């Protein structure tokens, strides 16, 4: 069964293109004018001093920015190569980088006169972040979540309800994240007069990839300045995990023109890059159109989206943001795969070395740092983004390791 968004491959505009034609707006006609309004408003507001002050105020006083750039002394000594710095997005309010994006989009929605926020969520992280900001700004909030995911993530469903959001269990398709995105887009198409769709990653039709990048760029804006203050130099390498690619594009953004800074995106290889249980979209996917954008997707020869797999729910997405597809094509960034086993090992490693329980998503980036740092020299520097904290993962990692934590 093809989705609404696959059928309607309309792209009348050349806006939001990356590299060799990635990105664009492949959406039902009915959403075209709404996206145009969003785009115009975004282009105006990002240069508007009042908007920038509102954004800044919430980032500082609500989200706890700037996040630390932490020198991981123990890991550096243990690995015996490059100096390792961790950009601590795990210390943000709600425990991940996602808050940066939802604050920006919710403020934008307010300026557009919208009082109702909708969002998709997979494991629940983006849904919780959206529900959080809706509560703060007094907006109503409805979250679309695959029925499978609502059953696997009951705690986050309750957390969203606690924050005042309504959670819809999506029963179409395979009842997972990709189906939740479709449901949210359809809801927006049918009710855009009072509703804004807060997209959770650097994906979807233009201008979402650009907006999400803009709001997440605070990560590299800060890390660049912080490293300048601490080391008086640029990093040699920046590493971040890639699901849809929002924490990674935010981590890369301010270094894109510094061609001596190597950029590495780490995808989830799941059970192995050559197995069918993987989510390494850039390495394994092919060019297609889905969720309103042209990008790389895990799909069969008919363009049907394949199921993807990773131990990490946040990296379990069958596509990737169009700018990452373009950066890979231009070889400006390199993308590598890390397996479940390697990520779990990194989860334990960083906990024991640094006393940080990091999100399993972020541990994919840490596992890559463990491999690459020893091959680099001691005067080189890696900045690795810790996209989130790992409290949410402790129970499932215990289970993966065969540890019985039931009472
Ligand atoms: C959602 C999430 C990710 C993956 O999303 P991106 O858009 O690729 O950044 C990574 N880490 C954490 C902690 C997340 O919650």
Automatic annotation (TrEMBL):
GO CC term, one of those recorded: cytoplasm
Superkingdom as given in the UniProt entry: Bacteria
Keyword terms: Amino-acid biosynthesis, Aromatic amino acid biosynthesis, Lyase, Pyridoxal phosphate, Tryptophan biosynthesis
InterPro entries: Trp_synth_b_CS, Trp_synth_beta, Trp_synth_beta/beta-like, TrpB-like_PALP, TrpB-like_PALP_sf
Signal peptide as annotated in the record: none
Subunit structure: Tetramer of two alpha and two beta chains.
Protein name, entry field: Tryptophan synthase beta chain
Organism: Weissella jogaejeotgali
């Amino acid at each position: 069964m093809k989705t609404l968004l696959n059928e309607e491959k309309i792209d009348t505009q050349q806006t939001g293109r990356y590299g060799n034609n990635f990105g664009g707006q492949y959406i039902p006609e009915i959403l075209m004018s709404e996206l145009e309004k969003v785009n115009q408003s975004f282009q105006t507001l990002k240069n508007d001093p009042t908007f920038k002050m509102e954004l800044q105020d919430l980032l500082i006083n609500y989200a706890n920015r700037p996040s630390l750039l932490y020198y991981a002394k123990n890991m550096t000594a243990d690995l015996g190569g490059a100096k390792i710095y961790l950009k601590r997005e795990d210390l943000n309010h709600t425990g991940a980088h996602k808050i940066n994006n939802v604050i920006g989009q919710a403020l934008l929605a307010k300026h557009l006169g919208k009082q109702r926020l909708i969002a998709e969520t997979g494991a629940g992280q983006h849904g919780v972040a959206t529900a959080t900001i809706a509560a703060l700004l007094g907006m109503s909030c409805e979250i679309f979540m695959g029925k499978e995911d609502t059953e696997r993530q009951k705690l986050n469903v309750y957390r969203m309800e606690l924050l005042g959001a309504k959670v819809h269990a999506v029963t179409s398709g395979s009842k997972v994240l990709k189906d939740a995105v479709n449901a949210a887009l359809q809801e927006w198409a049918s009710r855009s007069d009072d509703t804004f769709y807060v997209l959770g990653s650097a994906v979807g039709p233009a201008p979402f990839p650009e907006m999400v990048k803009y709001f997440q760029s605070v990560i590299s804006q800060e890390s660049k300045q912080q490293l300048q203050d601490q080391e008086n130099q640029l990093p040699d390498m920046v590493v971040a995990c890639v699901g849809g690619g929002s924490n990674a594009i935010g981590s890369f953004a301010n270094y894109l023109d510094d061609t001596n800074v190597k950029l590495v995106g780490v995808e989830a290889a799941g059970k192995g890059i050559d197995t069918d249980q993987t989510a390494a979209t850039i390495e394994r996917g092919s060019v297609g159109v889905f969720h309103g954008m042209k990008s790389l997707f895990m799909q069969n020869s008919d363009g049907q989206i394949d199921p993807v797999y990773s131990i990490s729910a946040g990296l379990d997405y069958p596509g990737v943001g169009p700018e990452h597809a373009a950066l890979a094509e231009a070889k400006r960034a390199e993308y590598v795969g890390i397996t479940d086993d390697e990520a779990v090992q990194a989860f334990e490693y960083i906990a024991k070395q640094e006393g940080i329980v990091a999100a399993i998503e972020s541990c994919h980036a840490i596992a890559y740092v463990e491999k690459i740092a020893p091959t680099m020299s001691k005067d080189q520097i890696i900045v690795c983004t810790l996209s989130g904290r790992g409290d949410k993962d402790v129970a499932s990692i215990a289970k993966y390791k065969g540890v019985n934590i039931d009472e």
